[in-house]
Amino acid sequence: MExxxxxxxxxxxxxAQAPGVALLFDYDGTLTPIVGRxxxxxxxxATRHLLVALVAKPRFGVAIVSGRTLEDLRQRVGVAGLVxxxxxxxxxxxxxxxxxxxxxxxxxPALTAIATALRxxxxxxxxxxxxxxxxxxxxxxxxxxxxxxxxxxRCFREVTLPYVRGxxxxxxxxxxxxEVRPPVPWDKGRAIEWILNRCYNGVQGKTLPIYVxxxxxxxxxxxxxxxxxxxxxxxxxxRRRSRASYYLSSPAEVAEMTERLVRTD
Length: 265
Ligand SMILES: [Mg+2]
What we know:
CATH topology of the largest domain: Rossmann fold
CATH superfamily of the largest domain: HAD superfamily/HAD-like
Number of strands: 13
Bound molecules: magnesium ion
CATH architecture of the largest domain: 3-Layer(aba) Sandwich
Oligomer: single chain
Helix content: 25-40%
């Protein structure tokens, strides 16, 4: 994996030669720094300004693909003309129409039951945050004292196992978060495929997709973008194994990349 700026000459050439560029971002840890509480992850005015400038460029499209709900993303981003994909792409809004995964809503009763059970068993553990996001559920444990993290994991497995075995939900992990999702084969990669087909006519070679993300669930996005011969960028402090071709070290470097793109024709 090479640092994106070390390869910038090569990368900027393929960007300059592409008829269209689809710039796809994860939100938390990519456009904003990772913070203690997910509530506090605000887009800086400078980054918002850069997104506005990118959307205004005729050759560029911008999308944000996140585990947050669509409504939450909409409020946090506040930029018109973007494609927003919430709940790992189970709900997508574009300037021309929207998408809701048809099977996803069927898991809703199981998710409600799991949220209730988790709140009950974890009620005495300080720092736990159970976030019911409608189509998915997140259990955040970043603020749980270190000695109790294993207990949180055990409780999570105990509560979710019957539902996982029954095929009503599936579970995934991210940075200090467990996630419960509908048992549908849908992830950030599928969401990106949907976006590229719908919003960019799905013509490989005509649109160059660039995906930037920092977490395990972003690997599906990198895989999809590779399939389109695009550019995959992992945001990471310490290098780790990843499918991404390039890396950036921080959300500040992501902002710098965006700035470089704004200066491109
Ligand atoms: Mg992230």
